[in-house]
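Support case: flavin-adenine dinucleotide complex. Customer-provided input:
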Amino acid sequence: MNILVFAESQHGAIKKSGLEAVTYAARTASQHQGTVTCLVAGVDENVASGLGAYGAHKVLKMESHPDALGLSDALSEAIAATQARLVVLAYDALGRHLAPRLSARLGAALISGASGLPEIQGDTLRVRKSVFSGKAFATLECSTPIKILAFSPNTLAPEKKEGTAEVVSFSPATRNSRIRVIKTEEKQGEVALPDAEIVVSAGRGLKGPENWGIVEDLAHALNAATACSRPVADIGWRPHHEHVGQTGLTVRPNLYIAIGISGAIQHLAGVNQSKVIVVINKDPEAPFFKAADYGIVGDAFEVVPRITEAVKKLKAGA
Ligand SMILES: Cc1cc2nc3c(=O)[nH]c(=O)nc-3n(C[C@H](O)[C@H](O)[C@H](O)COP(=O)(O)OP(=O)(O)OC[C@H]3O[C@@H](n4cnc5c(N)ncnc54)[C@H](O)[C@@H]3O)c2cc1C
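Agent response - structure generated as follows:
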């Protein structure tokens, strides 16, 4: 089976969700004797060929990064060129625009938010996704000739091995965007939560938004992103885009530090894939300790500044 995967880039590098997409496609291909062709835009030859280490056999490289309309044109042309029967992409902000456009245009079944690898038998593809805010799993099936799988970001970790991919320049006919971008403002000095290797997260135990300085200081010292529990975003202490859990973002960092968060199952649903979990809570019975690799029983207002100081000292001595 030929698989076409779209890997989004930013500032000349493939985004983490793009690397996940290539890994997802490569694992699917290895289970079903497939080949993986990757469409990228706005990266140089080295970055493109480097996708071979994540399992791409061939990379179609476009010069500039069009928006979802132009990308749907490019992907349609790439599907025709590669005879792809399965298209894989991340169900992130761009994927949410791109996948339905492509589905409508090609008459292809779209399964969005897939949370596992697909099983493919003959013309039928079957995959699991979580539904009703994570309360249940549904297994969906489709059998159109071309299928589109948009998986949930952080479903799996990007897997880097050895190898390079053949890179081919690709210049599809793309329509001009119907949206004119007037201005783009990018936040400086902040680590994007979905891509962060370290996340410092806090909950209602912090008592109020005025106390978030200790969380931000620790995040800054560790070059980490900040996150929060849902009630904290609901009451407006922190912005909603920081809310992690069943109804928020799913994160999969190397280190997740949870401060004053009880560890309700709905919170854990979005963070329990983290490699190492550190919990700081004054209640030794807090459920989060059961999911923690390291736990500190103590008052966040005493413990967190001491950790920040220790990190700063360590960095200064390094
Ligand atoms: C359908 C549904 C979906 C949901 N989705 C989500 C979701 O996506 N994400 C999410 O987070 N929640 C979600 N929730 C809410 C979830 O059930 C919990 O209510 C929520 O996670 C609790 O947030 P919290 O831990 O910040 O607050 P609390 O439960 O109030 O816990 C605060 C913790 O801080 C500790 N603490 C207090 N003071 C200190 C201190 N000085 N130092 C150290 N520790 C201290 C306490 O011991 C306590 O453990 C959902 C609920 C439902 C019903």
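The radius of gyration is 21 Å.

Case will auto-close in a few days if no follow-up is received.
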